[in-house]
């Protein structure tokens, strides 16, 4: 499911970062283009209210994945345009 939600967000032009990391409050960070090449960065933390969107579904689901499952998801998404799978340097991964 997480892969499907991430792909749906990417199809909207979002760039996803810090999947499941502390930097993102356990959810993810999205870089979203708003106008003429300008973009905003939005944090979607885990436990955010479910608003029926792929973004809230992904943010809430990431906390259910183990460390290894999150890494596997990052690898699956690595070849997908719009996904930045680089983890933050401050995240120890456990």
TrEMBL record:
Domain of life: Bacteria
Annotated protein name in UniProt: Uncharacterized protein
